């Protein structure tokens, strides 16, 4: 089931090249609420990749190296810290740097679809100029559907 999605706009402080000037210069706002995050199935996601969408995988580096969607970009939304998993304080900046400047549509995925929703909310809170969809079920659903995967 898909839910409506608002397109993000580039706020002042975020250049059209999607590079953050500074965290304090970026207005904090949410252009997507949790209920407005568009969900896409793995089958639809695979088709969208064929039409030029970018795949942002927000799992840990270790998870990403184990198996990943071909051509995916990895920027972890959470990292391992001394107390376990912690939010990646550099996630939004790193993701906006890693996503190609020409990308206008981005699929965001993780293991099951939960971290990717958090990632979409974070990217939305700092502003973005691309359409984002959450890959429902993440890499687990992708593997279950026997869609192509790469590994180390």
From TrEMBL:
In which domain of life is the source organism classified? Answer: Eukaryota
Every copy of the Rhodanese domain together lies at 49-151
Q: InterPro entries from the entry?
A: Rhodanese-like_dom (IPR001763), Rhodanese-like_dom_sf (IPR036873), Thiosulfate_ST/Rhodanese-like (IPR052367)
UniProt region (Disordered), positions on chain = 1-21
Protein name listed in UniProt: Rhodanese domain-containing protein
């Amino acid at each position: 089931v898909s839910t409506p999605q608002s397109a993000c706009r580039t706020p002042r402080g975020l250049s059209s090249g999607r590079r953050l000037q500074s965290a304090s210069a970026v207005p904090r706002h949410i252009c997507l609420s949790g209920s407005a995050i568009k969900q896409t199935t793995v089958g639809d996601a695979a088709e969208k990749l064929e039409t030029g969408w970018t795949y942002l995988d927000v799992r840990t580096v270790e998870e990403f190296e184990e198996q990943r969607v071909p051509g995916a970009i990895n920027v972890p939304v959470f990292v391992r810290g001394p107390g376990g998993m912690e939010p990646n304080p550099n996630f939004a900046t790193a993701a906006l740097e890693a996503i190609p400047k020409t990308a206008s549509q981005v699929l965001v995925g993780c293991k099951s679809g939960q971290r990717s929703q958090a990632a979409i909310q974070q990217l939305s809170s700092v502003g973005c100029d691309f359409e984002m969809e959450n890959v429902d079920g993440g890499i687990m659903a992708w593997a279950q559907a026997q869609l192509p995967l790469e590994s180390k």
